[in-house]
C-alpha cells in the first residue's frame, strides 16, 4: 500500500475522532481526543516524567533482547543441527512457549525481585523462545543437497555450519528476531504493569487505576508505535536478507 494512502487514512481517522469528541458524539469521560492525547504527551515530556520512565523501559527491553539474541541464535542453530540436543531441549522449549507471561512473572519476581533484573529476565524468556524455534527451523529447512555438495568437497563440520547452514538459515533467523522483539515488548510492559517500580508499564497501570484517560492513551499509543518501529526495522532487514538469498 502506498505511503500516501496510509498517511491519508490515519489523518481521516484522527480528524473523525477529534470531531466526534468535540461534537459530543463520543463520551470523552471514557475516552479522549487526539488533541487532548497530544497535550498530555507534551505535558509529560515537559515534566521529565515521560523520558525517565521510557528510558528505564527501553534499557530493560534492549538488554533482555540482546541477551536473547546472543543465547537464542546459537542455541537454536545447534538444536537444528544436533538431533540429541534437540530431543533433549525441545519439550521444555515447547512448554515455555505455550505458557502465558503472567504465569511466569510471579516466579521470576520471587527469584529476582521487583527491580529491573526481573523485567530483563521476562524479556529474555519471551524473546529467546521464539528466536530459538526459528533458528532451529532455519537450520532444519536447509536444502540437504547443499550440505552434501559441501561434504563432497571435503568441507568439515565448521565449514558446513558457517558457510552453508548459517547463510541458508539467516532469513528465518531474522524473522525469528522480529517475532521475538514483538514478544519482548509485550513482556516488558506486562512485567512493569504487574510488578514494576518504574517504567512505562507502571505509568500505564497508575493512569488506568486513576481513570486519567488522555495520558493512558498516549502511553499506550507510544508503546504501540515503538513496537511497530522495531518490527519495521527487522522486517526491512528480513526482506534484504531474503532477497540476498534469492539472488
UniProtKB/TrEMBL annotation:
Residue ranges of domain ABC transmembrane type-1 in the record: 54-234
Membrane topology category: Multi-pass membrane protein
Taxonomic superkingdom: Bacteria
Location in or out of the cell: Cell membrane
CDD domains: TM_PBP2
TM segment ranges: 58-81, 93-114, 120-139, 160-191, 211-230
Keywords for this protein: Cell membrane, Membrane, Transmembrane, Transmembrane helix, Transport
Principal subcellular localisation of the protein: membrane
Alphabetical list of Pfam families matching this protein: BPD_transp_1 (PF00528)
InterPro entries per UniProt: MetI-like (IPR000515), MetI-like_sf (IPR035906)
Entry similarity comment: Belongs to the binding-protein-dependent transport system permease family.
Protein name as it appears in the record: ABC transporter permease
